């Protein structure tokens, strides 16, 4: 007996016609992009507004479901990444996966690098990472604390809390222990970035030494590397650095973690010899 297998997405439910008689259903197992075939798709699949929806075994019907990490968009009914879910107009306190709404904590959010930091922040409502999660500085999504890589020297991660905790007062060469040191320790290339007001305990460079750019060890300040002429050290997008070949084109590459290095000063671009030259010199070479 032939049976008709249809999958119709309507509003927030999935409608599956049931065969008129008992027997195995034979149907096309091909699915749209970001979907896979399942013997138990059912009418209650997770979507942006109902993330924990599930199908009772008694309602199991073969069909297509979103692949892992994807979820139904309530507007298009296509499978999308969870962090791309729309913010419903009628629910301003809706938050993405692994986040919760807070009336006054969104101004300062912990990251893998600031697990133990004590912030002095403005009261701002918004979404924050739920317990056990921190915000990724790369994707801006909330990730498990356990996924954070390593701890600073002199610290060890507590397996119960996931926090980096100071272990001892023995410090590497050219460093000394302080009960109350700055979160913004001097390095070879000061950036003028706002610093957390509170102090922290740990190992810090001794007087006359600063953090080097290569491996983070403390080196004499006079041994800091210097940028070539017409360049300055900063944290920028290495994929958008201007050259004589591309300086007239806007860079569309975004969401790239900034990289500490020497970049051309304003009004200068790199030529074919990797030297920063005035933009006017590029035009002269084109003539």
Automatic annotation (TrEMBL):
Entry annotated with the keyword Signal: yes
Keyword annotations of the record: Disulfide bond, Protease inhibitor, Signal
Keyword Oxidoreductase: no
Cleavable signal peptide: 1-23
Source organism superkingdom: Eukaryota
InterPro entries, alphabetized: Ser_inhib-like_sf, SerProtInhib-TIL_Domain, TIL_dom
Gene3D superfamilies according to UniProt: Laminin (2.10.25.10)
GO molecular function per UniProt: peptidase inhibitor activity
A UniProt-annotated Pfam family: TIL
Domain TIL: 31-85, 95-148, 171-224, 227-282
Protein name: TIL domain-containing protein
